[in-house]
Amino acid sequence: MKFAKTALVLTLLASSAAYADFSANVGYASEYHYRGIFQKNSSASGGLDYEQGGFYAGTWAADVGDGLEVDGYFGYAGEIGGIDLSLGYTGYFYTGDFDDTYQEINLGTGYGPLSLEVALGEYENFDGPTQDYVYYALTLESEAGFYGKYAGFSEDFDGEYLELGYGATVADIDVGVSLIFANDDLVGDDEESIVFTIGKSFDIN
Fold it and tell me: Which positions ≥6 away from 85 have C-beta within 8 Å?
């Protein structure tokens, strides 16, 4: 199945590359948290993205201490009657022993400032039994850059978190700050974190 997904992406890339938008990004986070879970202090990242007619594909990598987290993703996003809809795939891979592979189907919808995302995933779990999980997130975002997110996990994973933040672009540099409140099911102890981020995107057409 993985080979079929790869072949589909390559075919679409080859057929429409001349009309596509390509971009790159670099970033830095004072603490790298993903879905409420702490990954590493002081983490740099970078990625490449492709977009054409609603179809998107890309890759992104971040420093997690023991090697890199390398993500690959593709999907389609569109709008019907003012409602945003998306369907995609994401794989999370690691060059070291920091973690094992995650693969998931991503579903998303939104209307105005409110959006909902759901991921149906499978975790390879090293030598242990494979685990299934569902991730869900409800986000409310204002045009001024403030947002609030309530999210969590179910099935073989458990835990919830609340994230409140603000993002802005200053002189073509993206800056952000967020407060993360995760419960003990997610991080082992109740944890509050403040995260500062900075990043830059580049068109490479």
Answer: 77, 78, 79, 108, 109
